[in-house]
From TrEMBL:
<dbReference type="InterPro" id="IPR017624">
    <property type="entry name" value="Catechol_2-3_dOase"/>
</dbReference>
<dbReference type="InterPro" id="IPR029068">
    <property type="entry name" value="Glyas_Bleomycin-R_OHBP_Dase"/>
</dbReference>
<keyword id="KW-0560">Oxidoreductase</keyword>
<comment type="subunit">
    <text>Homotetramer.</text>
</comment>
<dbReference type="Pfam" id="PF00903">
    <property type="entry name" value="Glyoxalase"/>
</dbReference>
<feature type="domain" description="VOC">
    <location>
        <begin position="7"/>
        <end position="122"/>
    </location>
</feature>
<dbReference type="InterPro" id="IPR050383">
    <property type="entry name" value="GlyoxalaseI/FosfomycinResist"/>
</dbReference>
<dbReference type="InterPro" id="IPR000486">
    <property type="entry name" value="Xdiol_ring_cleave_dOase_1/2"/>
</dbReference>
<keyword id="KW-0058">Aromatic hydrocarbons catabolism</keyword>
<dbReference type="GO" id="GO:0008198">
    <property type="term" value="F:ferrous iron binding"/>
</dbReference>
<dbReference type="InterPro" id="IPR037523">
    <property type="entry name" value="VOC_core"/>
</dbReference>
<feature type="domain" description="VOC">
    <location>
        <begin position="150"/>
        <end position="269"/>
    </location>
</feature>
<dbReference type="Pfam" id="PF22247">
    <property type="entry name" value="Diox-like_N"/>
</dbReference>
<keyword id="KW-0223">Dioxygenase</keyword>
<dbReference type="GO" id="GO:0018577">
    <property type="term" value="F:catechol 2,3-dioxygenase activity"/>
</dbReference>
<comment type="similarity">
    <text>Belongs to the extradiol ring-cleavage dioxygenase family.</text>
</comment>
<keyword id="KW-0479">Metal-binding</keyword>
Length: 307
C-alpha cells in the first residue's frame, strides 16, 4: 500500500577532491551545477529533473554515501510517515528547512542495514533544464558528456535485509519487484520500488553495515550507453564492467568509478512493475547470470569494491 513516498529525491555523496569530482559529474556524466553552500557542498541535477538538485557532493576524508532522500507527496504525508517511523521504533532526527539550500524540512532515520535515509516534501521547483514547459523542444542544447537524464536509484550493501525490508515495505509503502534467494530461501538481494521502475532502492546482503555500491543515472537508449563507454575510455575513467545487460531488471548498463572510488552506473531500458505484480525471483546459484546476463560470471570487483 502506498504511504506517500513518490520517488528518489537526492543522494549526498562524499568525495575526496571536490574539483576532480565536479569534472567527473559535470563533464563526464553531464549533470548541471545549480548551487553551492557555505559548507562547501555542491548541488547538481540532471536535465529532465524538475527540482533544484538530485545530487549533493561533499568533500570528505573518506568516500561513500552520506544519505539518500525520498520526496513525499506533501507535508501531511511527511507528518504521517514521521509518526509511523517513530511508532515502528526508529529514532527520527528533524532537520530544519534550509539546511540544504532551497529544500524544506527533512526527517532522517537509519535502517538496520546501516544506512541513513531522509524524507522531505518540499524543494525548489526549477523545471527541466534548458527546455520550456510550454511547447518544449526534444532536448536542450549544451548538454555535456553522457547527458544523464535523471538520478534513478542507489544500490546499498549491508546486513539485516529482512528488517530493512520491513521498514521500506510496511512503513514507507514500497513493494518488492525482484529478489535473489539463497538455497535455504533467505532473501540476499531485494529490489524495492514506489513507482513503475524495477527499483528505486536496492539492497544486497553484506556483513559490514552502511556500504555504498553505486548511484545510478538513466540514459535514453542503448546507443547512449555505448557512447558512455566510449567517453569512459576517452577520459581514461576507471571502468568496472560493461556495456552489458543485467538479468535482474533486464537493464542495459555500464559501471565505472568517480575519482574518489565511488561507483556510478548509467543504464537504459529495464522492466516495469505494478504493485499487483508478483516479485521476480532469481536463485543464488544463478547470480552470475542475474547480474551479468551475457557473461554469466561474477566480477569479483563488482561484489567487493564498496565505499
Amino acid at each position: 500500500m502506498r504511504k506517500g513516498v513518490m520517488r528518489p529525491g537526492h543522494v549526498q555523496i562524499r568525495v575526496l577532491d571536490l574539483d576532480e569530482a565536479l569534472k567527473h559529474y559535470k563533464d563526464l556524466l553531464g549533470l548541471i551545477e545549480t548551487d553551492r553552500d557555505e559548507q562547501g557542498r555542491v548541488y547538481l541535477k540532471a536535465w529532465t529533473e524538475v527540482d533544484k538538485f538530485s545530487v549533493v557532493l561533499r568533500e570528505a576524508e573518506e568516500p561513500g554515501m552520506d544519505v539518500m532522500a525520498f520526496k513525499v507527496v506533501d507535508e501531511a504525508a511527511l507528518l504521517q510517515l514521521e509518526q509511523d517511523l517513530v511508532a515502528y521504533g526508529l529514532q527520527v532526527e528533524k532537520i530544519p528547512a534550509g539546511e540544504l539550500k532551497d529544500c524544506g524540512r527533512r526527517i532522517r532515520f537509519s535502517t538496520p542495514s546501516g544506512h541513513d535515509f531522509e524524507l522531505f516534501a518540499d524543494k525548489l521547483y526549477t523545471g527541466k533544464w534548458g527546455v520550456t514547459e510550454v511547447n518544449p523542444e526534444a532536448w536542450p542544447r549544451g548538454l555535456q558528456g553522457m547527458k544523464a537524464v535523471r538520478f534513478d536509484h542507489c544500490l546499498l550493501y549491508g546486513p539485516e535485509l529482512a528488517a530493512t525490508y520491513d521498514i521500506f515495505v510496511n512503513v514507507l509503502g514500497f513493494h518488492l519487484a525482484e529478489q535473489v534467494l539463497d538455497p535455504e530461501g533467505t532473501r540476499i538481494a531485494q529490489f524495492l520500488t514506489v513507482s513503475m521502475k524495477e527499483h528505486d532502492i536496492a539492497f544486497i546482503h553484506h556483513d559490514e553495515p552502511g556500504k555504498f555500491h553505486h548511484a545510478s543515472f538513466f540514459l535514453e537508449t542503448w546507443e547512449d550507453v555505448l557512447r558512455a563507454a566510449d567517453l569512459i575510455t576517452m577520459t581514461d575513467t576507471s571502468i568496472d564492467i560493461g556495456p552489458t545487460r543485467h538479468g535482474l531488471t533486464h537493464g542495459k548498463t555500464i559501471y565505472f568509478f568517480d575519482p574518489s572510488g565511488n561507483r556510478n552506473e548509467v543504464f537504459c531500458g529495464g522492466d516495469y512493475t505494478y504493485p499487483d505484480h508478483k516479485p521476480v525471483t532469481w536463485q543464488a546459484e544463478q547470480l552470475g547470470k542475474a547480474i551479468f546476463y551475457h557473461d554469466r560470471q561474477l566480477n569479483e570487483r563488482f561484489l567487493t569494491v564498496l565505499t
